[in-house]
Every structure is written in structure tokens, then in C-alpha cells.
Amino acid sequence: MAVIEVTGLRKAYGRRQVLEDVSFRVERGEVFGLLGPNGAGKTTAVECCEGLRRPDAGSVRVLGLDPVRDAHRLRPRIGVQLQQARLQGALRVGEALELYAGLYPNPRDWRELLDEWGLADQHRTPFDKLSGGQQQRLFIALALVGNPEVAFLDELTTALDPQGRRDTWELVRRIRDAGVTVVLVSHFMDEVEALCDRAAVLDGGRIVATGTPAELVARSGTGGTLSFHPTAPLDPARLAALPGVTGVEERDGRIEVSGVGAFADEVTGLLAREGIVVTGLRIREHSLDDAYLALTRHDS
Amino acid sequence: MNRHTTRAVRRLAVAEGRLFLRDPLTAFFSLAFPVVLLLVLGSVPSLRKASPDMHGLSTIQLYAPILAVFTLMMLGLNGLPSLLGAYRERGVLRRMSASPVRPGLLFGALLPLYLGIAVVSVLLVVVGGTVLGVGLPGSPLGFVVSFLLAAAALLSLGLLLAAVVPSAKAGNAVGALAFFPMMFFSGIWLPREFSPALVNRIGDFTPSGAAVQALQDSWAGHFPNSVGLLTLAAYALLAGAAAARLFRWE
Hints:
heterodimer; A: 300 residues; alpha/beta; six-stranded mixed sheet; four-stranded antiparallel sheet; 13 strands; elongated; B: 250 residues; mainly alpha; two-stranded antiparallel sheet; 2 strands
């Protein structure tokens, strides 16, 4: 059963159309990524799922409920981490967790969350005295304190240092292992690649691709690059003519060939036939990063 | 209200109560300032003397009900709009709106909390007054009824302003805009005994004027007249309903 079902969602702010005909499904227990550049409509799409915004058209169902009309029945069952929010400045970490635990019918033990999210030492620190990373972790803990069936995490690792990001990923895996469905809004490809079972790429208010991270890479038609220093002169035009090669660049005697499919075999075959020895050979397979850029590239 | 709702309201009230006490300036002005002012005025012997110009009352006796209402105006008009304006500006309310909290729940926590603070402040004024010969309210029932209705009217009015202001600054501004006329009609600058009849006639239909008159009557031992009490009740109901209707999280 789909935990979230969005069909034909449209939303405009004034005359600016933010979402145009957005549809996606999130299955129970998966980590689903909403991926896209700034202004793509990711946050608006999740806010429609959380019931914070009313869609102009289309249907949104979360746990079988309408997020706006059935808000009072849905809210106790979801956890939300918002991109832009603060707490009362003088409210202490422990008090904030205790307060939010008290707002839900079936909360988790908030002291456990304090330890889990590394906030035990800050337990008496007022919100305004926390570092950006600590505030972020507190908001994630607040999103989980109500024991939600679905957790919405919007730009979860912004403001975290690299170690903090890795730790957070591990904790998101633990949330998932506990059976919570997670919707992750992100513009970090590595995050989506590391965490998401499936993802939708949003661009200009439309979904341009949906699938597993591997499927997204495959669908974008990006392949990889091969670069080397030839020890003898080599005409770049001959490389460019090879099947599968999409581009050749020469910089400081180093040649970089990009292409799709079996282009690398073609390149090494040519080098072998010509008897050209190369040094410093490097092969890079395209990642979700490249796929994302390819999917969201605007033809101007 | 079911068990969860009661717990949620209680937690919210406790958290806001702690935050209130952590802001020493607001806490002082709402809790202690009225009694301090009363004691300062009361230390001047001539202000403790009854005068035939004031129906046999002393200046301090005129000021006791005004200071009781002052607390309510501080909390309602100065406190609530800037508090909720700041919360709206910071996104505190937005975060809350993503939880099971509904506006009614938030009001249900803030109103009893602020009423409780006002009760403490008024008790201080009443106790301080006995030291200065003001005497206890002659009609305790009238006093309690008047005070509760006055609190309902002024706090609801504060919530109405707080329902829509986008920021702490805007909250302060509209609060001050409402605060000063209310101060005027409460008689804090010129007690109602000395005001022109027309001003008092208008004041009778303002929340602060009606509140001071009702408390003064109770202090003097009469049950306050029903027009004043109904005026307060009407403000409470209309402003409260409008606040709940207009309330915005963002």
C-alpha cells in the first residue's frame, strides 16, 4: 500500500506556478528522495503532503488521509522537520523535546532521543545558544518525538559538518530500519545516493524522472569520462569520431574523453591499433551527480 | 477535551510560563510593577488621605483598581501581540503548526497562564493596598466577577491583535497603539473622578474604562452595574471569536 499518493498536484503562489502536474507514490518503509535544484518546488510539494499548504488542484493522500481536511487526524501520525523554523529563543533543548513529546498521543521517550542525536550535553542549553548543527539535530529529534509513521525531512544535513552528515545518514537508516517511511528533500546527490531507495527529480515544478538512484543514472544517458596523457601526438578528431563518444577536450597535453555505452573500449582499441602508449590513465563513471545535472539542464 | 489534549495544553502552558519568567523585564512589569507603584504612591502621606472631592476616597484608593487593570493591559496589549508576533516571525508558530497543536490549544494554554500571572499581580496589589489603608474589596464576589471579565476582555483583545501581526516589531506597534488609549480611559493619568463626564461616558464602553469602574465599585462594596459587566463580556466574546477566526500560523 502506498503511504503517500500524489496525483496531478498543482500549486501557484500568485502568478508564479510552482508545481505543475506533479505525481509520485511513496511505499511503506522506503526512504524516498525529492531531488532538485533550488526553486524546483520540492519544499512546496512536501508541504502539501504535510498539510501546511493547500494544493490548487490534484489529489494528495498521506496514510489514506487528506492532509488539509483531515489535518487533525494526520498530524499525530507524521513527523516534520522544516527547512526554515526556529524555536523560542530561551527554550532549552530538554524542554523543547519534552514539550513536543507532550503534543503527541503516543510519543517516544524524549530522553532517548537526546542521547541518540548527541544532544545530551546540550540538554539545558537554550535554543538560541545552540550551533547550527545542534539546532538541526534538535529539529530532526523533534520530527521523531511523536513516534511518526512517516517522517518528512527537509534539507536534513544543511548546516552539518561532513562527520555530522555521515552520522545523520546512519541515524536515518536506523529510522528506516524501525519501519518509519522517510521522505527526504535534498539537493545533495551523495545523500540521495547513500540513503534513498527511490527518488523523484523535480525541475521547474515538474517531475522529470523517478526511480532508484541507479535507474536515474541509467535514464539520464550519462556514461563516464576517460582521461590520459598520450606519449605520442593524437588527433582529437579521430577520438571524437568513435562510436559512443560525446566529447573530447584537450588541456595541457591531457586528453579527456566523455561518452556513453562501450566508448571506453573503443578508445583503448584505437590507442592499441595506433600503438600509442598513455600515462596517467583515469576512468570515472558518472554518478547521480552527473545524472542530476543532465536531467535538470535547461536548454536556453 | 480528552486526556492527550489536556496534557498538550498543560505542557504548552508550563513551557510558556518558564519562558515568561526568563524574560525579567516583562515579568517585572506584569507581576511586580503595579504593586511597586502602589507602594511608592502610598508612601506619600497626602495621597493616603480621604478627600470629599473624591467621594470620601483617597488617591491611593482610586489607583488600586487602575493598577489592577494596568497589569491586564500590560499582559494583553503589550505582552501577547509582541510574543506571538515574534513567534510568527521566527517560525516558532510554523513549527508548531506542523504538530498536532491547533490555534485553540495554543490560546487554551496562553489565556490561563496569563490569567494566572494577572491574579498573582492583583493579589499583590490587594495585599499591598491593605498596608496602605485601601482595605479589601467590599464586594468580593463582585471583585472576582469583574476581574475575570476584565481579564477575558483585555487578554482576548490582545490575542486578536496577536492573531495576525507578522513580527515582534509590528506586535509592539499595534500593542502600543491600543495600549495608550486604554491607559487613558483607565484613568491612570487622570482618575475617572476628575475626568469630564463625556470622557467617562465614552470610557464606560471601553474595556479598560469599564474594567476600572467595575473594580472600583466592587472595592467600594457595591456589586458592579450590569452594563459595565456586559460591556466587558461582549469585548471578550467578540475579540476572542475574531482572534480564533483570524489566527495565522505564518
